[in-house]
Design goal:
The structure holds 2 protein chains of 2 kinds. Chain A is an alpha/beta fold. Chain A has 8 helices and 17 strands. Chain A has helices at 16-31, 72-85, 97-110, 217-226, 234-238, 269-275, 292-295, 304-318; strands spanning 2-7, 9-10, 13-14, 35-41, 58-62, 90-94, 113-118, 129-134, 139-145, 150-154, 170-173, 183-190, 202-206, 229-232, 259-263, 280-285, 298-301. In chain A, the strands form 4 sheets. Chain A has a 7-stranded parallel beta sheet with strand order 7-10-6-1-4-5-11, sandwiched between helices. In chain A, strand 16, helix 7 (292-295) and strand 17 (298-301) form a beta-alpha-beta unit. In chain A, helix 2 packs across helix 3 and helix 4 (217-226) packs parallel to helix 8. The radius of gyration of chain A is 21 Å and the shape is elongated. The termini of chain A are far apart. Chain B is α/β, with parallel strands linked by helices. Chain B has 6 helices and 15 strands. In chain B, strand 3 (19-20) and strand 4 (25-26) form a beta hairpin. In chain B, helix 3 (94-105) packs across helix 4 (127-135). The longest helix of chain B has 17 residues, at 37-53. Chain B is globular and about 65 Å long. The chains are: A alpha/beta, B alpha/beta. Strand 12 (183-190) of chain A pairs antiparallel with strand 11 of chain B.
């Protein structure tokens, strides 16, 4: 058995979610007595060797500049060719933006059963069963893959970034046919100076309880102190107190940080659907009946306007600021 | 222009999630079923907006499932589709569903196929990509904006930590999410009209399934919230640092 992990990169560096996918692939290889290699498309990032830290010794690169722009059809074709050349039977992706676009295509192309959004290593005691989150975080499903070839996309921040080796991954360039893309990337607009919500280990979030956008200082200040991303509930995004990309919940982004710190959010079921995979949930709300307290690990029943300045002071003291 | 919108049936967002048959089936009895919100609010409504801008546009809806899906298909027709096709098949896995849709779409002459970014039950984000590969078409996923400019389509999609603007020619497959359109409620005229719109039932093609559900699990119950006095918020910071070790 041979495993291939697709490594996504931007701005010359491997994405954090892909390091997690690499660690997953290496752990799967260790579990199944096989080996895991990586595949990297486009101008290679500068930090390929770092994959060694995550248990991957070899990265196949297809360093064709045409692959510096993403197109799901082209990427699918190229990864399929590499998978065939290296005789991979299991292909691992991160379930991030590009993974979500390519993994299903590749599944159809190779007739390889896909588990999208895996949160644990496969259980191979009876077949090949992979656990994933379903019903928007309200349940888990154990999915059995019956095809010979298999694809797993790993949900960001669910497996953990485990290091298991030294920084010694080597690259080998592979030449495959790169078809012409039918879509063209016209512009890329990254949100600057902020930690992307999907990658953040800590998220500080505000809801309608904060009464207006002018009161968001406490959210952003705490986020800055903790190196956290900021988020908000749907009503807040709907009235444009905060930008739409900050909306977490059923119809917004689903996240799984180590700490989700919710201020003035009641915790409607639709909001919980986007955050209930967070490892620790803190809720600050003045309504003791707020449903969020039932899903929380820590809470304060109190007025955010009185409580938050003291919390910020205590965090400053903790951080030595 | 001819648009195909894929719609899926899901439990309502507030439905109780429970399982039967030794935790292998979703307990659907008494559950309110809805059109998957991403399919309805974003894919279908954006298709309707395109039709409003160009009256020559035709919108077909496709759903894979049994006759119990007809009420949600009628609701989608009430919102604005022209006609619907239901593939009379039991959903086994996403590859099978994508194969059923591909069999209908391949000779349908569609310029644009739209899906929601994922369903709120299986959260797979898979149908659009699989369909694109089966039909050998370009695919843009997680689109937050879609505009037509002559024969070109301009799509803005979400990427990790930002947005990307793509240009593509038709035909194209797009999965849609928040930003594409705003939720609409069907009006009386739409509801009346939907009753007489064609809902064609076709039999499924032979297609494989690559995966199956071995079992479901509910998440372990939380131990219960540890409440800190509002007079001592600094105690919360201590707990997060020393006990939970998250800051």
């Amino acid at each position: 058995m041979s495993i291939l992990v697709y490594i996504d990169h931007s701005d010359g560096h491997i994405k954090k979610q892909s390091l997690e996918a690499a660690a997953y692939a290496a752990a799967l290889a260790a579990q199944s007595n096989s080996k895991a290699d990586a595949v990297i498309l486009g101008t290679p990032p500068t930090d390929v060797a770092v994959l060694g830290n995550y248990g991957i010794q070899k990265a196949y690169t297809v360093s064709d500049a045409a692959l510096d722009s993403f197109d799901s059809q082209v990427y699918c074709s190229v990864i399929a060719q590499v998978a065939e050349k290296v005789a991979a039977d299991i292909i691992v992706f991160s379930n991030n933006a590009n993974g979500k676009a390519v993994a299903p295509r590749l599944s159809a192309k190779l007739k390889a059963g896909l588990v999208a959004g895996a949160i644990a290593l496969p259980d191979t005691s009876n077949g090949f069963v992979v656990k994933k989150s379903v019903f928007s975080g309200k349940a888990f499903a154990n999915i059995s893959i019956s095809s010979a070839k298999k694809i797993i996309s790993v949900n960001p921040n669910s497996f953990g970034i485990k290091t298991s080796g030294t920084e010694n991954a080597v690259t080998e360039n592979i030449t495959v046919a790169v078809p012409a893309a039918k879509t063209k990337v016209d512009a890329v607009n990254k949100i600057k100076g902020e930690i992307p919500l999907s990658e953040a280990e800590i998220v500080v979030s505000g809801g309608r309880g904060l009464k207006g956008p002018e009161n968001w200082g406490m959210v952003t200040e705490l986020a800055d102190l903790l190196g956290a991303a900021t988020a908000c509930s749907r009503p807040v995004a709907d009235v444009n107190w905060r930008p739409h990309h900050e909306h977490v919940g059923q119809t917004g982004l689903a996240i799984a940080p180590n700490l989700y710190f919710a201020i003035g959010i009641s915790g409607a079921i639709q909001h919980l659907a986007g955050v209930n995979r967070s490892k620790t949930i803190v809720v600050i709300n003045k309504d003791p009946e707020a449903p969020f307290f039932k899903a929380a690990d820590y809470g304060i029943v109190g007025d955010a306007f009185e409580v938050m300045p003291k919390i910020i002071e205590a965090v400053k003291k903790l951080k030595g600021k | 222009m001819k648009i195909l919108v894929c719609i899926s049936k899901t439990p309502d967002t507030t439905a109780k999630i429970a399982f039967t048959d030794n935790n292998t089936k979703f307990a659907g009895d008494g559950v309110q079923w809805i059109i998957n919100p991403y399919d309805e609010w974003y894919a279908l409504v954006r298709a309707i907006e395109l039709k409003e801008a160009d009256a020559g546009t035709i919108i077909h809806l496709i759903n894979v499932g049994g006759a119990d899906n007809d009420p949600i298909i009628r609701k989608a027709l009430a919102l604005g589709g022209d006609e619907a096709i239901r593939v009379n098949s039991v959903n086994t896995d996403s590859y099978n569903v994508a194969s059923q849709i591909a069999a209908v779409a391949k000779d349908g002459g569609y310029h644009l196929v739209m899906t929601g970014k994922e369903t709120i039950d299986y959260n797979g984000s898979s149908i659009g990509g699989m369909l694109a590969e089966l039909l050998d078409l370009p695919y843009i996923s997680h689109a937050i904006k879609l505009d037509l400019s002559g024969s070109e389509v301009i799509v803005v999609r979400e990427i990790d930590g930002g947005e990307e603007t793509d240009k593509a020619a038709l035909p194209l497959i797009v999965s849609c999410q928040k930003g594409m359109a705003e939720q609409r409620i069907p009006n009386m005229k739409g509801i009346m009209g939907a009753r007489t719109k064609p809902l064609k039932v076709v039999e499924p093609v032979d297609a494989e399934s690559l995966t199956s559900i071995a079992s479901f699990e509910l998440p372990p119950a939380k131990a219960g919230v540890k409440l800190v006095s509002p007079d001592q918020p600094e105690e919360l910071v201590r707990l997060l640092h020393e006990e939970a070790r998250v800051i």
